Amino acid sequence: MTTAPLVSTPLAQGSGPGDGRWAYRPDIDGLRAVAVLLVVTYHVWFGRVSGGVDVFLMLSAFFLTRGFLRRMDGPNPVRPVRHLLGMFRRLLPAAAVTLLAVLALVRTVYPPTIWNFVWEQTWASLFYVQNRVLAADAVDYYARSETPSPLQHFWSLSVQGQAFVLWVAILAVCQLLVRRRGWAADRVVGVAFGAVFLVSFTYSVLITAADQRSAYFDTGARLWEFAAGSLLVVALPYVRLGDRVRAVVGWAGLAGLLALGMVVDVQGGFPGFLALWPVLCAAAVVLSGSGAQPVGPARFLASRAFGMLGRDAYSLYLVHWPLLITLLVVTGRSNAGLTGGALVIAVSLVLARGLTAVVDAPVRAWRRSDSSPLIPLAVLAVTTAVVVTPLAGWQVASAIQDREVQARALLDNPGAAVLRDPTLPQPSADAALLPLPTQLEDEWVQLDQECSGVRAVQDDILRGTCSEARGTQRAGQTVVVIGDSHAQQATGALLPVAAERGWGVVFLIKGGCSMGVDEPGMDPSCPDWREAAISHAEQLAPAAVMTVVTRSNPGEDDEALRPGIDRFVERMTDAGIDVFAVRDNARFSFDMFGCVVNSENPIDCAVPQSSSLAESNPAARLAGPGVRMIDLTPWICPEDFCPGIIGNVVVYRDDNHLSRTYATTLAPSLAEQLPARLG
């Protein structure tokens, strides 16, 4: 057998299986089966990403482009809007049933602390913007969650949905040019998606290098993978390979797909140029099966078993991840294990078959039997309502219940006040703990408005990190709280004191960026942000700045000063600005909030102070003119013991941050350590 060279004229359309474009390709269904098997097995047993999703993205554009291109210059052109509605009519029902089932699971077995997160992701998944939520969370210090989301896998469906809208628009323009100008359909489509490929691939490489975590979910960084599928449709008739070469290319492509997840850190390195690997491998498999006779992996992939699995690929992708995460939540384990993983896969296969048979297949059949444009709209409206009605109802009912509980609980939740006044009555037996689990995201201390007037920032790196309390503009004296999220949470105790004494409060806060000038921080931009924040504080010339000057360490008693914090203090005092040097709170190796709300005996969650804090305050060495020491440890870890609940208020919102509710009850203890007047 010989290799045919690249030729300049395409094979005749509809000439038979050699065309490789219009005839049904059972081997491509088999390739979809391989892709979904990779996704599922890597998720379940290896805790890694396989690259199978990239194959799905490419193949989805392959089929979409093929459908348009086949009719582009024929007597029955594609109607773009109706075609787009038909696509979502087919995709949304199965997704909606999955979302509804996940809501039921979450309500039944998941902790209330994740409810808000799941509500947000359900809305995002339903309207195909889940990837944007995850991209924002990936770089958001405050969005970290101890419990994984059962809807995280919807990010790729959202990318796909967004790309479908763009693809139909581009293909509609291509179709218009072909029919009005008489241009060759292959050439027009090739040029259009060749441009998309080049622009998106360049963007993908650049943004992946700059910010891989958000790039992973970025539609723009993924469009080139779709474009590759479209270009493959155009290229198929122009590529003629001998049977032997096709076989080698096909098997090499399949082997490359199987090896990818073991060799490359897909989640940590994609998309960028590394994603060329699965895209090119999938293209090789498709090319190998495009000849007149099936060779290489084409026969293997076209088998009945792979055909059945390929038919259920979409449903299997939908159901496997929620089942896996639910198993981990119920068992409290970090991985499914061999037996648990096998159970997840077995149940997923059964549910996928049922979802395809009961929902997906009937919707497809209905689409073929009734071409009315009103049907897709009706299907989309009904399936959306199926999810929106229980979701919105649950949220509203929960909000009403939370308000009622809070109204009843005000007298039953004194927090730190019980340590100051032991004569306070004990909370009633049925009193609810505050904060409520469903309101945990509201437990971050926030100020009322963005910095304005003379306090407005000019440096771009400070934008979004400067805010101020209402009334700060009129206040005679101001305190600037500067630093990381621990300084932010300590402000919960400062705000009532400031309001009582007429002080203004300004935030210069960035999660993970303390004022230890020699500390690298959790974000690469911390050193630059820190310098800009300090310069802005000097420019504001407040009466005082407040920051956390030590750092505790969970499980050890080596609490120490922040590296370089002494130079920050010196810089402030040299500028005539007093420093409120706050000692860090205890930290834990587990989620304290989750422990106390899920434990039969919350006292079991408490730990000795010595397991995180030093015996004496390491900040004492900073004492000097203009420096006031703030140590709230006696009201956070009373009697050298750090409990999770004090005065019927949960002290921590996670493993290291004070809850806003408890921090507010520390105001009297902080007031005693602050001067009556500033300056």
Give structural attributes.
679 residues, 2 domains, two-stranded antiparallel ribbon, 24 helices, elongated, disordered N terminus
SSE blueprint:
Elements: H1 26-46, H2 52-71, H3 80-109, H4 115-126, H5 130-138, H6 154-181, H7 185-210, H8 212-215, H9 223-235, H10 243-263, H11 266-269, H12 276-288, H13 297-301, H14 304-311, H15 313-331, H16 337-369, H17 374-409, H18 417-420, E1 449-450, E2 466-468, E3 477-483, H19 485-501, E4 503-509, H20 526-540, E5 544-548, E6 550-553, E7 556-561, H21 565-574, E8 578-582, H22 592-598, E9 607-608, E10 627-630, E11 641-642, E12 645-646, E13 649-650, H23 660-665, H24 667-673
Can you offer a commentary on this structure?
This protein folds into two domains: about 25-390, no CATH class; about 435-675, Rossmann fold (3-Layer(aba) Sandwich), CATH 3.40.50. The chain is an alpha/beta fold and about 675 residues long. The chain is elongated and about 90 Å long. The chain has helices spanning about 25-45, 50-70, 80-110, 115-125, 130-140, 155-180, 185-210, 210-215, 225-235, 245-265, 265-270, 275-290, 295-300, 305-310, 315-330, 335-370, 375-410, 415-420, 485-500, 525-540, 565-575, 590-600, 660-665, 665-675, and strands spanning about 450, 465-470, 475-485, 505-510, 545-550, 550-555, 555-560, 580, 605-610, 625-630, 640, 645, 650. It has a seven-stranded mixed β-sheet with strand order 1-2-4-3-5-8-10, with helices on both faces. The chain has a two-stranded antiparallel sheet with strand order 6-7.
